[in-house]
Design brief:
2 domains; 8 helices; Acyltransferase_3; acyltransferase activity, transferring groups other than amino-acyl groups; membrane; transmembrane helix; transmembrane
């Protein structure tokens, strides 16, 4: 059989594994991460010039979901591997988060008025519980309005979402691999993405 012109087109998805940097991270994902960082910074520094820069946060969430799901799907999930997953995630995030909370507390006590301290004390409780995202939801406060108040810990919401995701994703993957066969997986996929 003779190959036509269409058969000579390059593959959209390369058959070889993606390039990795010296530290083992994928180049393509690091580029996406860099674009997301630049988008978020541009949005915060020049919101008028980059009105959609906040979408960089969505890019981080999608990237994080992809990476965590990939990591978990490649390994056999056991009680030990799930605990190890939690320990690695928390060791990577919690120490810097704790430092940020300490610095924010010292700065707030030093620079803000008593009325601002009341807001901060409420915010720090939610931040310590890693649930700042739920504070925004339960108080039914618009994030964009809060940006203009003195909300020192407003940015903690995204870390709350990420850590809460880390808490549930191993169990979702475990459920998927343990209880769902091919047709059930397809049905679950259709239900989730059609709702």
């Amino acid at each position: 059989e003779e190959m036509g012109k269409d058969d000579e087109l390059p593959l959209i998805y390369p058959s070889s594994p993606p390039n990795r940097l010296k530290h083992g991270k994928r180049e393509d994902l690091q580029v996406i991460r860099g674009i997301a960082i630049i988008a978020v910074l541009a949005f915060h520094l020049l919101p008028g010039a980059f009105p959609n820069g906040y979408l960089g946060v969505d890019m981080f969430f999608v990237l994080s979901g992809f990476l965590m799901s990939t990591i978990l799907c490649k390994s056999a999930l056991t009680r030990t591997s799930i605990i190890d997953f939690f320990v690695r995630r928390f060791k990577r995030i919690i120490p810097l988060y704790a430092i940020m909370l300490c610095v924010s507390t010292v700065a707030t006590v030093s620079l803000f008025t008593i009325s601002d301290m009341d807001n901060f004390l409420t915010d720090i409780k939610w931040a310590l519980a890693i649930a700042s995202n739920w504070q925004i939801v339960l108080r039914k406060v618009d994030y964009w309005t809060k940006v203009f108040d003195y909300q020192v810990l407003l940015h903690a919401w995204s870390l709350g979402v990420e850590l809460q995701y880390y808490l549930i994703v191993p169990f979702i993957v475990l459920f998927r691999t343990t209880f769902l066969n091919g047709p059930a997986r397809l049905m679950l996929f259709i239900i989730i993405f059609s709702s």
